[in-house]
Amino acid sequence: MAYLDSLDRKILYELDRNSRQNYFELAKKVKAKKDTVKYRIERMIKNRLITGFYTVIDYSKFGFMSFRLYIKLSDIPLLKIQELVEYLKNHKNVTIFYRTTGNWDFTLSVWMRDIWGYEVFWNDLTERFGCYFLDYHLALKTKYTEFSRSYLYQKQDEEKKQFTILQKTEKFDLDTTDFKILTALSKNARCSLVDTSKKCGISVVTCRSRIKSLIKKKIIIGFRAVLDYEMLGYRLFKVDIWIQNMKKKQEIMEYVLSHPNVTYVQTTIITSDIEFDIEVEGILEFTAVMDQIRKCFPNDIKRYEYYMLIENYKINYLSSL
Q1: DSSP code for 258
Q2: 147 touches 265 (CB < 8 A)
Q3: 144-160+234-312 is a CATH 3.30.70.920 domain
Q4: Tell me: the pLDDT tens digits for 280-315?
Q5: Bridging pattern class, strands 133-147 and 262-269
Q6: Domains of the chain: which residue ranges?
Q7: What is the largest CA-CA distance in the chain?
Q8: What is the pTM of this model?
């Protein structure tokens, strides 16, 4: 586990809310010298505490659907596991890919324009590896929101920042230049305007204007850092809750979201009633959080299941485009 002082945590907090901020902006917010901030970020990247910077993009603006797939493996040779992992990591329609403990070995998000596109993906996946699948579960997402990690450094009176990347929304048609910009920023949210403009073959002025337009249209939702949870001393738990009294669903959801360590929440069809991710220091803290939720709603929750993240293989919101 990496040792983090107050300044490190302030920097991570700001990068988690907006990883595209330049060194001067960050230095001003954390009240440190620009060179110090630059050194600290470079050190955290070198130590693999920060493993990348990604752009949060609303796929639903392009008419995409998002599927959440859980997979449980049977006895499978190590080489086949590695082959499966590489296949899913490199698949253009897989945007989020985790290895987990519990009832499921893998959890992933697959973005497609329609159900028939998913059918093609599923048929190819099962032809290659289906003989090693002991069980699997598919759900269709209808809303997906990320939250900033306020637990990194709690600022007084500053709420968690929301990044809603899937919802019922209007559609936009983008040209080739917009897609080039999104592709460049999806791989590195801190890519400079100069480098981005060179990659896209446009002027810096045009590049700046296009990015501002994409943000205004809420196609680009935000810019975030990919962090190593273990080095931070945290573990990610994915939680599914089934509710007894559906009239209490919204109240339970609001209570869950008020917790500073809840970082993701999603709504799906044909699955549990509430799904969220929480990053805590271990199983004891996680159990205490869940006990408190059940204590506050003793007659309203049927049961819950959870899965702990072992490894984050992939986060890229522009793969399938």
Answers
A1: T
A2: yes
A3: yes
A4: 999 999 999 999 999 999 999 999 999 998 888 887
A5: antiparallel
A6: 144-160+234-312
A7: 60
A8: 0.84
